[in-house]
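Researcher: Let's do a round of design. I'm pasting the structure tokens now; please hold your answer until I've finished.
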């Protein structure tokens, strides 16, 4: 396991334990989780992104814990998954080269292709780290982090919303 994968594992364990009260254990790669996926992108000295995928039952469990509501609707589940993705990305940003900025999280409720994270690693200049976890009782979580090793410049008119004065 490389340095970035170790950092991802530590961050995911910390977020799961402190925010959810759940223990995340490393797991061997398997079939991709069939539930929702959250994505946050990085721009700047480190260009790439984080994709968090989990099974639907884990997404509902996370939403119930984060929102203290056992009856979360689909929109609340997506909001909670976006927040978890943002927590992982924000913690990861702290160990990546600076300066880097984060996008807002985007969540896909379902229907991400089975190739998922591997589809992000197309092209000779993209590096991918894919780390898998198991959470009790038998839930699956996948974190994929990709980096564009040859990023293009960030033109002034393509600034992230956080960079625009207002």
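Researcher: That's everything. Go ahead.
Model: Designed sequence:
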């Amino acid at each position: 396991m490389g340095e970035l994968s170790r950092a991802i594992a530590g961050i995911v364990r910390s977020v799961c334990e402190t925010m959810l009260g759940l223990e995340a254990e490393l797991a061997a790669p398997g079939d991709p989780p069939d539930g929702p996926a959250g994505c946050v992108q990085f721009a700047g000295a480190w260009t790439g992104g984080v994709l968090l995928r989990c099974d639907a039952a884990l997404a509902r469990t996370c939403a119930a814990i984060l929102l203290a509501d056992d009856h979360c609707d689909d929109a609340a589940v997506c909001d909670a998954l976006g927040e978890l993705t943002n927590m992982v990305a924000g913690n990861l940003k702290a160990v990546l080269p600076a300066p880097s900025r984060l996008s807002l999280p985007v969540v896909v409720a379902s229907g991400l292709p089975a190739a998922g994270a591997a589809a992000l690693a197309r092209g000779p200049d993209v590096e991918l780290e894919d780390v898998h976890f198991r959470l009790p009782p038998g839930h699956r979580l996948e974190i994929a982090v990709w980096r564009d090793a040859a990023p293009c410049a960030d033109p002034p008119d393509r600034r992230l919303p956080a960079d625009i004065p207002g």
